[in-house]
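tool=predict chain=A
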Amino acid sequence: MLALCLAGVSFIAWANFAAVHASRGKLYDDVAKIPACKVGLVFGTTDRFQDRENLYFRYRIDAAEKLWRAGKIQVILVSGDNSDKYYNEPVKMKRALIERGIPENRIACDYAGLRTLDSVVRGKEIFGLNEVTFITQRFHNERAIYLAEANGMKVNGFNAQDVATRGGLKTRVREVGARVKMWLDVNVLGTRPRHLGGKETLPE
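tool=predict ok
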């Protein structure tokens, strides 16, 4: 039993280290230092949670705006969950970006980014992205970059401000399990996005 417990702990630690290792040298906090890339991909989340503002949402929009105004990206792809008519992350992100002054015709929506793996793989296979800048919190960027590298993509991550509340702590705890799933999806299960469909074209 002890051996099994130790093996389990070791596997969890390895899966989490794999994400950190994959993202080394590819994460940026300073907008002046990140290489320019045509497309920035913002990972989805909703704007409100339990009738409160979702700071993950605000900080991701902040980060996308910074990259845009610095000329580091020319197109923004917002990828998130649109699983029912009352819940549409991409539309909320697009509206928030337009309110910040980003032209609507420079924003594209991926409505089937139901999870990080879906957003990454659809970015490559549906939107034709082999090079892209990911925009989300650092812990999420690490996992997304692991998934992207497993799919032969060249990526960097721009780190949005993290959330230093109790809710943020819960998210970080859940991230441990998400990285285990990440490793299994890539190395054991061969998981694919729930929805693919036809190719889509991004703004030129």
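The domain at 21-162 is CATH 3.40.50.620 (Rossmann fold). The longest strand covers residues 131-137.
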